[in-house]
Design a protein that fits this description.
The complex is a heterodimer.
Chain A lengths: L2 H9 L4 E8 L2 E7 L5 H16 L13 E4 L3 E8 L2 E8 L9
Antiparallel strand pairs in A: 1-2, 1-5, 3-4, 4-5
Chain B lengths: L15 H4 L12 H30 L3 H4 L6 H27 L9 H6 L5 H19 L17
Classes of the chains: A alpha+beta, B mainly alpha.
Chain lengths: ~100, ~160
């Protein structure tokens, strides 16, 4: 898959503020608020590595498809496919529960 | 050892044969020299035999490492060993590199769909935060209730 093909789908994600495509060797592609953000890339890489080490009992595969790092205003959604880590920064619009 | 007392009347240095109390003083020959010359050889043989047996026992219980060097290995034996060890190393390093590759497992084959799908509902996030807070509170209340000494002295006889 070429870099353009990797990123074309990421551009179309609703509410996306930026993205990163990272391999073991470093950042392959970046855009928006995450453009050239090596620091975030390193942190996300370490977080997803740590998370993928957890296994549910009796399961050989990681028990998740996506990792969400939720902050007040935005969310980092992270997944791994074909030895590449995809990070997308998306707007967070938390719906406060209605208190009646 | 050997002939050491030529004159019995003179005060002599306490030599080993003299310090051994003789079972029968009457049978002691008038000349100390005779007594020594007749008794020392047998004592010496006993001592020698004892030493030999100690040496023998020790030799049986000792593994002489320096002697192992003298065991010569043929060149082809060296080559065989080298080959054997490198095969073992290759197998081990394979499993190590596999482990390293496993650090980044593939979570999905469709990363774009997974990333574009709806965000986690706010209520779910709240629930997880609540459970985490409970767990944190529970863990922080764990404490050691020391009832006896952690370090004790063993009574070594």
């Amino acid at each position: 898959m070429t870099t353009a093909a990797l990123t074309a789908g990421l551009e179309r994600i609703p509410d996306q503020l930026g993205y990163l495509v990272i391999s073991e060797d470093g950042v392959l592609a970046s855009a928006g608020e995450l453009e050239n953000d090596e620091h975030t890339a390193g942190v996300m890489m370490e977080m997803v590595r740590t998370a993928s080490r957890f296994r549910l009992q009796g399961s050989a595969d990681p028990a998740f498809k996506r990792m969400s790092v939720i902050l007040d205003d935005f969310v980092y959604t992270v997944t791994v496919s074909g030895q590449k880590v995809f990070v997308v920064k998306r707007q967070n619009n938390p719906h406060e529960p209605l208190s009646v | 050892m050997g002939c050491c007392c030529s004159n019995e009347g003179e005060p002599t240095e306490p030599l080993i044969p003299h310090t051994i109390p003789h079972p029968n003083p009457v049978s002691k020959p008038p000349n100390g020299t005779d007594w020594i010359t007749t008794n020392v050889p047998s004592a010496r043989t006993d001592e020698q035999a004892l030493l030999t047996s100690i040496l023998h026992k020790t030799a049986q219980n000792i593994i002489d490492v320096s002697a192992a060097d003298s065991v010569m290995m043929e060149q082809h034996e060296y080559m065989d060993k080298a080959r054997q060890y490198s095969t073992k190393l290759a197998v081990l390093s394979n499993s190590v590199s596999q482990k390293k590759a496993l650090i980044l497992p593939s979570l999905t084959s469709q990363p774009h769909q997974v990333l574009a799908s709806d965000l986690v509902p706010y209520s779910d996030v709240q629930q997880v935060a609540k459970i985490a807070a409970y767990a944190y509170s529970a863990i922080s209340q764990i404490k050691v209730d020391a009832k006896e000494e952690l370090v004790v002295q063993f009574a070594i006889p």
